[in-house]
Every structure is written in C-alpha cells, then in structure tokens.
Amino acid sequence: MEYGGGDDEARDGTRWIVLVVRVPAEPSRHRVAVWRELRKIGALSLGQGVWAVPDVPLFADGILRVLELTERADGEAVSLAATGRGAQDGLRLRAMFTAARSADWAEFMADCGKFEEELTKALGGAADGSGRPPKLTLAALEDEEQSLERLRRWHRDLTARDVFGAPEAAEAGERLKVCVAACEDYAERVLAALHQVPEQRVPEEGKREPGDESGR
C-alpha cells in the first residue's frame, strides 16, 4: 500500500486550512469566544479542537481572529495547509462542509417563515382571522424593516460561506424575495393608513358639537 499521498490527479483540487486549537478551560469566556468565531466563519468541526475551512481569501480574516483570540487566552493554535490524500478524501470534506451550509440555509429559511408570520400578524384579523386590529404604524414598519435587513445580511454572509453551492441556496434566495415583497406590501398598507383622511362626522340637525358656541 502506498502512503506517499497519491498523485495530484487523484485529488479534487481543493486546498484546506486545518486549525488545531487548544484553549485553557478556565476562564471559559476565552474558549467560548474562539468557538463563536469559528462558528461565525463557518468552520467545519473535524473533532475536538480541530477545524477546517477551504483555503480561499474569504476565510483569511476569520482565521487571523481565531489565532489572535487563542493567543490572548494563552492557548495554542496550529494552522496547516492540506489536501485530501485522494479524491475521495477531498470529496468527503466538501460534502461535510456543504452539509453544514445546508443546515445554515435551513435555519435561514425557518427564520424567513417566522418573518412572514410576523407580517401576517401585523396586518391584523383581516389577514390571519384572529380578530386583532392591524399594527399599521411607522414604529411597527421600522421594526419589520430591521428584521428584513437582518435577513438580507444573513443571506449575504451565507452566500459568501457557501463555497461549493449547497442545493438549498436557490430556494433560500426565493424565500428572501418573498419576504422582501411581503414587507413592501406591508409598507404600502402602513403608508396608506397613515395618509388616510379621517371621516368627518356631520352633526344632526338642531344639535351642536361640543365647543360649538355659534348658536349663542
């Protein structure tokens, strides 16, 4: 059996950065900070303290932050450039990394669903049959627009990290478009309600409105 690593043609061509990170258990905030940064950049966990990302410029800043946080915590970190020994190794890493991105997209689409539900509630009983009055105010609109902007940023971040193209990415893009359209419709309803001229009540003949002293 050959252990020399195989020839280049047997590999899938993807290079990886493998991080081996060890942070003291206490104080725990350091270990949590490193873990959060690794999760933030979408690093793939290969085991306790071992993480991997594709060797592309997108992840460079995140890797530097992980190394800095580890050093600040008096921990140890080693970064290695690696490829799979053979094509199957490389493809397996790609599949694992893409599966992690698929999970991210699933979480994103679930939040899109929650956003749509919130808009439906904001439209009141006419939309969801609850009988509640609609929340057609600028404050409510601002809250929903902030939620939509969060979804947009999240979509951009996930798209950037999805190096190999998870199959859920296209559906997630369509879900975001639905959210944008729903928010635009809500905005139009809010503005229409705010611009609506209140109905003027005509007093009955022979009766004066409060404050009307013209009859004196």
Short description:
By secondary structure, this protein is of the alpha+beta class. It is 54% helix and 11% strand.
What does this structure look like?
It is elongated and about 90 Å long. By secondary structure, it is an alpha+beta fold. A 4-stranded antiparallel sheet has the order 2-3-1-4. Helix 5 runs antiparallel to helix 6. It is 54% helix and 11% strand. The N and C termini lie far apart (113 Å).
Number of helices: 6
Summarize the biggest pleated sheet.
4 strands, antiparallel
Portion in beta strands: 5-15%
Instruction: State the helicity in percent bands.
Output: 40-55%
- Total strands: the figure is 4
Q: Give unreliable regions as ranges.
A: 1-10
SSE string, helices as H and strands as E? EHEEHEHHHH
Order the strands across the largest sheet as they lie in space.
Answer: 2-3-1-4
Features:
216 residues, alpha+beta, 4-stranded antiparallel β-sheet, 54% helix, 11% strand, elongated, disordered N terminus
Annotate the secondary structure layout.
Elements: E1 16-22, H1 28-40, E2 44-47, E3 50-54, H2 60-72, E4 76-82, H3 87-122, H4 125-128, H5 138-161, H6 169-195
Antiparallel strand pairs: 1-3, 1-4, 2-3
Helix pairs in contact: 1-2, 3-5, 3-6, 5-6
